[in-house]
Amino acid sequence: MRKIEQSGSGNAQAPRNDQPRQELPQQQLLSIGNTQQLMLPPPPPRYENHERRDAVHQVENQHQPDQRYPRKEGRNEYREHHQSYCVFTTEETDRKSLQHRHMEVNAVMPAVTRYMPWLDQEITWSIKDHPKLIPSPGSYALVLDPTFIGPNINVRFSKVLIDNGSSINIMYVDTMSKLGISENMLQATRTTFHGIVPGISYEPIGKVRVDVLFGTRDNCRTENLEFEVVNLESAYHTLLGRPALNKFMASCHISYLKMKFPGPNGVITIVGDFRRSIECASVGSNLAESLVIAQEKRKIQEVAALAQSAH
């Protein structure tokens, strides 16, 4: 870097008249002591978060629009798809599952529509529901704090995950013991689920029905839910899947971290906390990593045992 001497110093050399004096931008000068200054490179361009994200990650579509239809300008322009992909999943082949699927496929439409309960109250979302602070909307799971009615004690659990991607409700053994439920109260189950560790399936130790309460003393709802009990560690107390949401007729807003459902005295709104969601996500990530490590160690031990037996 080039040093620039200030003319006020006694030992400073006066600039030559035949050389034009160059004015330096203020942001490029850094003072050192009282006399010397260094020229710094210009600062990088500043972007807002959304501008930088668009500039780096935005995929531009180069396909020419169909000329047969009038084009609408803007991001909401409809675009025809060029290809379609399907995902095929395996289904249970036991007699009970086949019979249940046959009944669903061949169900006859009733002459009179049988409406689901709690449809007399309309649930809407508006700007009034917008929270005061959500640092990164859509990045947090919806974690709520309902009350569970046990045999002899009612317990309010603060870390209950709302998961509309799950087809079952899950309760962990630790939560079951806190409610005062013993294993002899469980019923047998044939459910098998995946998703904790890729490629590994888990079988619950049983299932149990528990009353779950949302709301306040002035307006609350209680529904009886069936839970699959698993002997696993988790960052959550329980997991409420689609069966619970269907029972409560609940509507969830992931961006707002809120859940609404009809109540005896009007619509009930349950609010989550993104700080609690971050805490649970951090703990869950560490638990999942430990499960993967334990599974890998188990496989290594099995391979070592086979190698020793071969010799």
Number of helices: 5
Structure classification = alpha+beta
What is the global morphology? globular
Strand content: 15-25%
Question: What would you say about this model in short?
Answer:
The protein is an alpha+beta fold and 311 residues long. Helix content is 23%, strand content 21%. The protein is built from five helices and 16 strands.
Task: Characterise the protein shown here.
By secondary structure, the chain is of the alpha+beta class. The protein has a domain at 141-294: Acid Proteases (Cathepsin D, subunit A, domain 1), CATH 2.40.70. 23% of the residues lie in helices and 21% in strands. It has helices spanning 49-57, 95-105, 173-178, 242-248, 274-310, and strands at residues 3-5, 29-32, 36-39, 143-144, 147-149, 154-156, 160-162, 170-172, 193-194, 201-202, 206-215, 220-230, 238-240, 251-253, 258-261, 268-271. The protein has an eight-stranded mixed sheet. Strands 1-3-2 form a three-stranded antiparallel sheet, with no helix packed on it. Strands 14-15-16 form a three-stranded antiparallel sheet, with no helix packed on it. The longest helix has 37 residues, at 274-310. It is globular and about 70 Å long. Mean pLDDT is 78; it is low at 1-12 and 24-35.
Fold blueprint:
Elements: E1 3-5, E2 29-32, E3 36-39, H1 49-57, H2 95-105, E4 143-144, E5 147-149, E6 154-156, E7 160-162, E8 170-172, H3 173-178, E9 193-194, E10 201-202, E11 206-215, E12 220-230, E13 238-240, H4 242-248, E14 251-253, E15 258-261, E16 268-271, H5 274-310
Parallel strand pairs: 7-13, 8-12
Antiparallel strand pairs: 1-3, 2-3, 4-7, 5-6, 5-11, 8-13, 9-10, 11-12, 14-15, 15-16
